Amino acid sequence: MWTARRGSLYHQLWRRLIDDYDYDAAASDSQEHPSDAVLVGFVIANIVGLRYYTGTISGREMVGLVREPLNPYDPNAIKVLNTRTVQVGHIERAAAAALAPLLDSCLVSVEAIGDEGKIAPLKPPKEVIVSELFEHQKEGLGWLVGRENSCDLPPFWEMRDGSYVNVLTNHQTSERPELLKGGIFADDMGLGKTLTLLSLIATNKPGGFPSSSTSNLQGEDERINSSSGRKSRSGKTVIKSCKRRKLDGGEVQKNEALGLKTTLVVCPLSVLTSWITQLEEHTRPRSMKVYLYHGERTREPEELLKYDIVMTTYTTLSAEFGDPSSPMKETEWFRVILDEAHVIKNFGAQQTKAVIALKAERRWVVTGTPIQNSSFDLFSLMAFLRFQPFSIKSYWQNLVQRPLDQGSKSGLSRLQALVGTISLRRTKSAENGSKGLVGLPSKTIETCFVELSAEEREQYDRLESEAQNTIREYIDADTVLHNYSTVLHIILRLRQICNDVALCPSDIKSFLPSNALEDVSQNPELLKKLASLVEDGDDFDCPVCLSPPLKTVITCCLHTENPETP
């Protein structure tokens, strides 16, 4: 369970990215503003005439505005182009009348970005998924399928004069950028992400075509637009396949997943039972073949590809990372799903390197907390998703992290555009002005005081006195910050006494860590423990300030400490 402090920090960071979009900085990635440029304001306007044009936009995609003074129907006309320079429609007449004179006089520059639309719901095939999905789960399934089947250019890519240009790096290539079939599924805990993902596996089969039984939702007029997973502008969008669609260079996209069907699910060991339970509860028996790659397991990749789902753990992947004959390395998966993916936030950990090295066409990051400490937590997720250029550390530092650290709006706008395009985040209840899905009533907190028994009071008072003496010693020696973990440990033990005296040792000195530190290089056992902690990806975040330590040591009693906590 998240503490209030950590949960609040996460929500502040995440809602800042999702909700408080900085419109004045949104398009600063594609061009530099003059040093004397100032924000005049922003206008929210509708795009009209959608049914007359072929261009489409996904949520929060940057769009171009071009004046059409010779338009026979409206001399103030401003057409809207998507990132591939295909016309989507026109700015509504009232807004165009106000903007056109300003554009014509060259007094202002206008930049625009599309907002998120309503996600079209989708039903999974009943021959596989026997449970009825909630409406938000159907919409989530529609978004997942739309992300996987999209043939649009990845964010920040444009087509110019027959070439593809990245507007952030100005990199130009004649080859179409690799499709980004996946993203971040970041729904709040308790909204049924596992069932939604099982529905994705059952629905979106290899070849890019969702199951035929999924179109019978709210009539035939509300199918899924494969480019964005949202309702089409005409209400009658046929599901498209990247395999047969003509792309912007005249080339036909090859479906690399042809013949593959296996989805690899990677999760912590404690979550494996949840997946198994969900499979038993929500899927028809024998409708999907599942293999548990844990403990005694096969070494043949061909055997794994016989199954619809293969489940394994981060620890198993980490243990086999150095084994060149590991089936995990050799197998080309149709889809990889990282559940509780925030555990790979440590980019240097072996388990992170192991999941990044997996071969797959479709990649999903699933976590209710994609950001825990800072925006840099997202870099490992970008590396797994292989979302270039953000999957390259130097580009992430230059385009996002350094501008953010320096307080530049460009870094925030890039991160907001990135997150808004490839992630889906919904919450159970309203928070920070957002609309929740479940509509829970406001939280009611009642404080009840319970009188301790005579034995509990005696034990509590005695340990409290010893704890006060210990903390007073730290204060006198000015070492409180160096021993913060001990202070928290004392508080924990005192709380345990309030529940049951059997939970707490009788002598407080018995659980206080030693102040003696030992050079790890002189103790092979400590060296081995430290190496295993780093390789397994255990983080050393300070439980008080939630920041990584500046220097980590292990005491001779194998207690991990940070003697330089700020």
TrEMBL record:
Region feature (Disordered): 209-239
Top-level division of the source organism's lineage: Eukaryota
Subcellular location: Nucleus
Helicase ATP-binding domain residues: 174-388
GO terms of molecular function: ATP binding; ATP-dependent activity, acting on DNA; helicase activity; hydrolase activity, acting on acid anhydrides, in phosphorus-containing anhydrides; nucleic acid binding; zinc ion binding
Keywords: ATP-binding, Helicase, Hydrolase, Metal-binding, Nucleotide-binding, Nucleus, Zinc
Any one GO biological process: DNA repair
Chief location category: nucleus
A GO term from the CC aspect: nucleus
SUPFAM superfamilies membership: P-loop containing nucleoside triphosphate hydrolases
PROSITE patterns membership: HELICASE_ATP_BIND_1 (PS51192)
Entry-linked PANTHER family: HELICASE-LIKE TRANSCRIPTION FACTOR (PTHR45626:SF17), TRANSCRIPTION TERMINATION FACTOR 2-RELATED (PTHR45626)
Name of the protein this chain belongs to: Helicase ATP-binding domain-containing protein
